[in-house]
UniProtKB/TrEMBL annotation:
SMART domains: HTH_GNTR (SM00345). Keywords: Aminotransferase, DNA-binding, Pyridoxal phosphate, Transcription, Transcription regulation, Transferase. The keyword Manganese does not apply. In the C-terminal section; belongs to the class-I pyridoxal-phosphate-dependent aminotransferase family. Residues 20-88 form the HTH gntR-type domain. It comes from the Bacteria. This is PLP-dependent aminotransferase family protein. GO terms for molecular function: transaminase activity. It comes from Castellaniella daejeonensis.
Length: 495
C-alpha cells in the first residue's frame, strides 16, 4: 500500500472513538493494517513528520509508535533510510474462517469440540453464578459483618514485624502456626481428633475434594455422593473421570440400598452435620453404619463440613471424623462461610498415614502461598476472635432466618413447607409437585431476585423434588421483606 493511501486510511479511522491516548490509537491501527495485509512486507511507512502533520498530532507521538513497532518486530527502521514493514510470515498461516461469528450455537459447538472429554463433562453441568450477593443467594455470608478493625490491627502487626518469610511460597502442608490453630480449634468445637501435621491447607473445600480425588481415586473408580448434592462436588468429581453413584437421603441422612452396598465405592462424599441442600443431620445410627462399612470395605469417606457452626436451635454437632477409629475419614472445611469467601482459605484434616503425601502433593500441584493471610488468621483464631465473631453473626443470621420464615407464612400460610431451616445459611421453600422450579427461578431473576432451583441439585432429575433454595444470611430483614414480596408474586403465578 502506498504511503499516501495509508495516510488516508489512518485519517478515516483515527478519529477518537474512545478516551484512549493518541499513541495507543495509532499503534493499534498500524498493527491492524500490517496484520490484515493492508501493508505488505517491504512497504514503506510515511515519515514521522508527514504522518504527524496529516493526523494533527505531535511528531514525538509518531516516533514513539514507530519505535514500539520496531521493538516488537513489525517494522525495520534505520536513520536516513525510512521505516519498512517486516515480513512476519503471515503467508505461512491459513486464513482464519470466522464462519461462526453470527452463529452462537455453532460457535459453542465448535468450542465444545475443542475441549477434552472431561472438559466437556465439566462445562455441560456448570452451576456457578456470577451473582454473589443479594436476596436470596444461598450459601453466602454477610461480608458486611466481617471484623475489619480487628483483622486490620492483626495484619498491621504482622507487616510491622518484617514478614519476609510470609512473602514466599508456603511450606508443604501450609503455614505451621495456622495448622496448629485449626487443629486446636476443631478439637474444641467439632471434636475433630488431629495433630497439626494432619491439617493440610487448601484454597477451599473445592480444592480439598480435588486433591482427595486425585490421590485416592483413579479414573473410572466409583464414588458415592448424596442425592441431592451440591453441584460443585458433583461436577468436580465427574470432570475427574470418576463414576458417580447418587445415594438417596432420607430424614436420617444417606441410605444406600442393598444393591448399592453390594458394590463398595472407593470414596464416599457426605455432609453429615448439615446435608446440602436439604439440611438434615445424619443420625448416630447412620454414622456408625457408614463408618463400619468404610472400615470393612476399605472405602474412604470425605466429610464436607461447610457450615456446621451455624445451628440455631441446638449446639453444633460433633464431627464424623471424631468417631472414626479406623482412619478412613478425611475432614474438609473452610472459612468461606464463617468469615468470607474472598479469603480463599480451607483445609483438609487427613488420617496420619496420608498426612505426608497430601501435604507434599498440594505443594507440588498448587504451589500454595498466601501466608500473610494465614498468619493473620492464625492469630485471629488463637486470640479468640473467630469464636466471638461466629457467636455474633449466628445471632444475626437467626434473626434473618426468622424474618424470612415469617414472610413465607404471611404470604402462603402453611400451604408451602419450609425444609432445613434449623441450621446453615439457607432454607428450602418446597413447591407443589408439577411446578417447574427452574421457571420460577428464571422469572424471579428477571425481577432482580436470586434463588436456586432444588431440582438442579439432583443427578436423577426424574426423581427431583421442586423447591427453591433461599439464602438469608447475606440480607437484612429490611432487605428480606420487599424481596420476598416480589418472589411471592412470582411463585403465585405458578400455584
Amino acid at each position: 500500500m502506498e504511503a499516501f493511501i495509508l495516510s488516508e486510511w489512518l485519517q478515516q479511522h483515527f478519529a477518537p472513538s474512545d478516551d484512549s491516548p493518541a499513541y495507543h490509537r495509532l499503534y493499534r491501527l498500524i498493527c491492524r493494517a500490517i496484520l490484515e495485509g493492508r501493508l505488505a512486507a517491504g512497504a514503506r511507512l510515511p515519515s514521522t513528520r508527514d504522518l504527524a502533520a496529516e493526523l494533527g498530532i505531535a511528531r514525538n507521538t509518531v516516533l514513539q509508535v514507530y519505535d514500539q513497532l520496531a521493538e516488537e518486530g513489525y517494522v525495520n527502521a534505520g536513520v536516513g533510510r525510512g521505516t519498512y514493514v517486516e515480513d512476519i510470515r503471515l503467508d505461512l498461516l491459513e486464513p482464519a474462517i470466522d464462519a461462526d461469528k453470527d452463529d452462537p450455537a455453532a460457535a459453542l459447538a465448535a468450542a465444545g469440540h475443542d475441549l477434552s472429554h472431561r472438559g466437556r463433562r465439566l462445562v455441560s453441568g456448570l452451576g456457578f453464578s456470577n451473582r454473589q450477593a443479594g436476596a436470596f443467594m444461598p450459601g453466602i455470608p454477610d461480608v458486611r459483618e466481617f471484623p475489619l478493625k480487628t483483622w486490620s490491627r492483626i495484619q498491621n502487626r504482622q507487616w510491622r514485624s518484617g514478614p519476609w518469610d510470609l512473602m514466599r511460597y508456603a511450606p508443604a502442608g501450609g503455614y505451621g502456626p495456622l495448622r496448629q490453630a485449626i487443629s486446636d480449634y476443631l478439637g474444641s468445637v467439632r471434636s475433630v481428633r488431629s495433630t497439626a501435621q494432619q491439617v493440610v491447607m487448601t484454597t477451599g473445600i473445592h480444592q480439598g475434594i480435588d486433591v482427595a480425588a486425585r490421590l485416592l481415586c483413579d479414573p473410572g473408580d466409583t464414588v458415592w455422593i448424596e442425592e441431592p448434592a451440591y453441584w460443585g462436588v458433583r461436577n468436580l468429581l465427574t470432570s475427574s473421570g470418576l463414576n458417580l453413584v447418587p445415594i438417596r437421603v432420607d430424614d436420617e441422612g444417606i441410605w444406600p440400598g442393598e444393591a448399592e452396598r453390594a458394590r463398595p465405592p472407593r470414596l464416599i462424599v457426605v455432609a453429615p452435620s448439615h446435608q446440602y441442600p436439604l439440611g438434615m443431620v445424619m443420625s448416630l445410627a447412620r454414622r456408625h453404619m457408614l463408618l463400619d462399612y468404610a472400615r470393612q470395605f476399605s472405602c474412604w469417606i470425605l466429610e464436607d463440613d461447610y457450615d456446621s457452626e451455624f445451628r440455631y436451635d441446638t449446639r453444633p454437632l460433633s464431627s464424623l471424623q471424631g468417631m472414626d477409629e479406623a482412619g478412613r475419614v478425611l475432614y474438609a472445611g473452610s472459612f468461606s462461610k464463617t468469615l468470607c469467601p474472598g479469603l480463599r482459605v480451607g483445609f483438609l484434616v487427613v488420617p496420619q498415614t496420608l498426612a505426608g503425601a497430601f501435604a507434599d502433593s498440594v505443594a507440588e500441584l498448587y504451589r500454595e502461598g498466601n501466608m500473610m493471610t494465614h498468619a493473620v488468621l492464625a492469630d485471629f483464631i488463637r486470640e479468640g476472635h473467630l469464636s466471638s465473631h461466629i457467636r455474633r453473626v449466628r445471632r444475626r443470621y437467626a434473626e434473618r432466618r426468622d424474618c424470612l420464615i415469617e414472610e413465607i407464612r404471611r404470604h402462603f400460610g402453611d400451604a408451602l413447607d419450609v425444609v432445613g431451616g434449623e441450621a446453615g445459611l439457607h432454607l428450602i421453600l418446597a413447591l407443589p409437585d408439577g411446578v417447574d422450579d427452574t421457571l420460577v427461578v428464571r422469572d424471579a431473576l428477571q425481577e432482580n431476585v436470586v434463588t436456586r432451583a432444588l431440582s438442579t441439585y439432583y443427578t436423577e432429575r426424574e426423581n427431583a423434588r421442586p423447591g427453591l433454595l433461599l439464602g438469608y444470611a447475606g440480607v437484612t430483614p429490611d432487605e428480606i421483606r420487599p424481596a420476598f414480596d416480589t418472589l411471592a408474586r412470582v411463585i403465585g403465578a405458578y400455584l
